[in-house]
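Quick one, tokens below:
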């Protein structure tokens, strides 16, 4: 390729409309000299005649001018001088070779095209005038007989030069337009590239300024963008003996455990597998030095709605989780310390209420104290059960039980509360097959659902409990005509300590643990819990247990529940 570079430069000079005067002239002079050599082989005397030598002299002058003059510093019109001199030399040669004058006249097209390319329409005009004056006019003067055929024959060459010149000018005009549009497109592309690079730098600076890790990956999982915080997280997750680990080799564990997270369940891989998720907890780094992160992933769509990759965000929640664990330990300790004296208080209150000598007012005071102590004990028990369930330290005691029977006992226990509140409590309990259930825990879950339904249903309302068998599932529904809740509230309903706005604004007592605990109990049994509700139209809570999942639950008996 290097050897052909000089020839490529010469070729560009020959076809250039404005530059390369010397190169064009050398090309034409070489062509005419070669033509002269061929003539001398058979007609040596012809090239030694005065007109032919004059033609060679004019050619030499034109060549010297082309090689020595700095044409780029002169006005554009001076560029016509060299091709006009070439036309003079062609005219002199043609005048000698009358027998082959037509073929010799074609040589004039080379300088004519040159001028048309350099001066455009002015070049065409000069070429036509020069050809007419140097070739057409002399041929008419020497003609022995002039008629219309002779004139037409003589004018053929200038008309040919005119047509070819105009076609050349038109083609060059089109080429100039294309070059101009191409230059504009290149300028616009360069501006877009510079703008994209600027936006990329701005985006990188922005995401580098935040203290959460951000990584953007393409459809195959290759990194497209990563901020400074994420690079630190990646370095923490990289094993010491591996320079460029893949996803499965990174040090990622479930928080508080030594169990590595399977590759398909890791945040970036989940995002690559087209999952979107929130608050997925992982622990990153070597054992004993790990940092806990909450990760969230979202899919990226292009302008046509097609998937273009994913973005995953990692937020350090180590301090938050430690605070939560400290609070849980505190709540568990306080609850445990409260339960024993509360049980004793309730026992003594029950003994005091049995005294038949008490007056009505004192008896009423004891009833209120007993009821509130019972309520407080229930809260303490829920707090303790919640901590045990979250820690996974309680074993389920599974026995074959009918869900319909447990529901019947729960309804009977809630009946006094319903009568006192002026609410109709109904039950439609279809006999259900036996399932391996922890009766005490399921009773607690149903009690929480019924207690909530009764608390948030106004006087005169209804609460309906129903059990049924649907295909391979057992269903239990608690339907109330209470205050209901919005979709946003339903999404947070099973979160610990969460209470809806209506519950917070009302005077109804509650601590926000019951439903979270209920969900964990249901999930620990391999079941599901869902809610449907509309503000002012009541709520429906539904528990579902798979009949064909009984074997799985039986296998899980005696193991700590991992629900949550």
């Amino acid at each position: 390729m290097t050897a052909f570079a000089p020839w490529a430069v010469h070729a560009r000079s020959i076809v250039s409309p404005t530059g390369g005067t010397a190169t064009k002239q050398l090309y034409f002079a070489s062509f005419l000299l070669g033509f002269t050599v061929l003539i001398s082989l058979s007609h040596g005397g012809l090239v030694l005649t005065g007109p032919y030598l004059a033609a060679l002299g004019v050619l030499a002058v034109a060549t010297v001018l082309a090689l020595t003059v700095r044409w780029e510093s002169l006005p554009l019109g001076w560029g016509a001088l060299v091709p006009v001199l070439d036309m003079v030399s062609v005219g002199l040669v043609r005048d000698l070779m009358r027998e082959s004058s037509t073929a010799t006249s074609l040589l004039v097209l080379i300088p004519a095209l040159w001028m048309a390319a350099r001066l455009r329409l002015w070049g065409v005009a000069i070429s036509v005038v020069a050809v007419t004056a140097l070739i057409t006019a002399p041929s008419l003067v020497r003609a022995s007989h002039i008629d219309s055929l002779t004139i037409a024959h003589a004018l053929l060459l200038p008309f040919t030069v005119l047509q070819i010149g105009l076609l050349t000018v038109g083609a060059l005009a089109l080429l100039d337009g294309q070059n101009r549009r191409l230059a504009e497109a290149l300028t616009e592309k360069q501006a877009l590239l510079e703008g994209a690079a600027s936006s990329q730098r701005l985006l990188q600076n922005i995401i580098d300024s935040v203290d959460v890790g951000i990584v953007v990956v393409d459809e195959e999982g290759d990194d497209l963008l990563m901020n400074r915080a994420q690079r630190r997280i990646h370095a923490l997750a990289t094993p010491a003996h591996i320079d460029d680990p893949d996803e499965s080799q990174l040090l990622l564990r479930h928080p508080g455990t030594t169990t590595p997270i399977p590759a398909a369940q890791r945040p970036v891989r989940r995002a690559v597998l087209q999952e979107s998720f929130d608050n997925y907890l992982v622990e990153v780094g070597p054992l004993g030095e790990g940092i806990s992160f909450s990760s969230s992933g979202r899919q990226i769509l292009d302008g046509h709605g097609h998937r273009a990759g994913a973005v995953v965000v990692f937020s350090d929640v180590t301090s938050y989780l430690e605070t939560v664990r400290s609070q849980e330990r505190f709540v568990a300790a306080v609850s445990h310390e409260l339960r024993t004296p509360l049980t004793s208080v309730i026992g003594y209150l029950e003994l005091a209420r049995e005294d038949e000598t008490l007056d009505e007012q004192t008896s009423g005071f004891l009833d209120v104290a007993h009821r509130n102590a019972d309520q407080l004990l229930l809260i303490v028990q829920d707090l303790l059960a919640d901590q045990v369930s979250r820690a996974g330290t309680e074993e389920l005691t599974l026995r074959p039980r009918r869900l319909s029977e447990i529901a019947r006992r729960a309804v009977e226990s809630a009946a006094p509360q319903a009568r006192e509140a002026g609410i109709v409590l109904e039950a439609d309990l279809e006999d259900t097959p036996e399932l391996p259930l922890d009766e005490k825990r399921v009773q607690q879950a149903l009690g929480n659902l019924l207690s909530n339904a009764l608390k948030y249903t106004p006087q005169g309302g209804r609460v309906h409990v129903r059990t049924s068998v649907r295909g391979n599932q057992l269903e239990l529904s608690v339907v109330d005509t209470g205050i209901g809740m919005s979709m946003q509230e339903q999404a947070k309903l099973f979160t610990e300590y969460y209470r809806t706005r209506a519950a917070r604004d009302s005077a109804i007592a509650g601590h926000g643990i019951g439903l979270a605990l209920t969900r964990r109990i249901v999930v620990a049994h391999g079941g599901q819990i869902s809610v449907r509700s509309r503000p002012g139209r009541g709520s429906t809570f539904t528990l579902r247990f798979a009949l064909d999942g009984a074997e799985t639950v039986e296998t899980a008996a005696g193991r700590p529940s991992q629900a949550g």
